[in-house]
């Protein structure tokens, strides 16, 4: 292949690529604008999953409403703070484990 044939091929390839890009831009312009994403810290409604057994304790256990069972732990296993009554428990061997 000589230089002039190679040059013609390069020009044709650039033209095809440019044509494809212009069609893609036109399709993007015709598309409806994307929906606004929800705010990261949107207000949510929470269901209270349980109540503290003895609120005077610094780290009280939780009594869960779904089965009236008391959590086997009195503090969060992750942060070692008071259990959160808004967090649903995880059941291990049928016993609820609370989280923060």
Straight-line N-to-C gap = 72 Å
Give the averaged pLDDT, no decimals: 77
Residue windows where pLDDT falls under 50 for at least 5 positions:
none
- SS class: alpha+beta
Strand order of the largest sheet: 1-2
Major sheet summary line: 2 strands, antiparallel
What is the helical fraction, as a range of percent? 25-40%
Kindly list the characteristics that best describe this protein.
two-stranded antiparallel sheet; two-stranded antiparallel ribbon; 1 helix; 4 strands
Explain the overall architecture:
- The chain is α+β, with helices and mostly antiparallel strands and 100 residues long.
- Helices cover 28% and strands 12% of the residues.
- The protein has 1 helix and 4 strands.
- The strands form 2 sheets. It has a two-stranded antiparallel sheet with strand order 1-2. It has a two-stranded antiparallel ribbon with strand order 3-4.
- The mean pLDDT is 77.
Summarize the structure.
The protein is of the alpha+beta class and 100 residues long. It has one helix at residues 3-30; strands at 50-52, 62-64, 90-92, 95-97.
């Amino acid at each position: 292949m000589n230089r002039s044939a190679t040059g013609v091929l390069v020009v044709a390839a650039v033209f095809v690529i440019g044509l494809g890009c212009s069609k893609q831009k036109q399709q993007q312009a015709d598309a409806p604008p994307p929906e606004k994403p929800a705010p990261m810290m949107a207000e949510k409604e929470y269901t209270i999953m349980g109540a503290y057994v003895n609120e005077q304790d610094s780290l009280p256990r939780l009594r869960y409403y779904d089965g009236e069972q008391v959590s086997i732990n009195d503090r969060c296993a992750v942060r070692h703070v008071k259990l959160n009554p808004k967090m649903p428990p995880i059941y291990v061997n049928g016993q609820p484990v609370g989280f923060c």
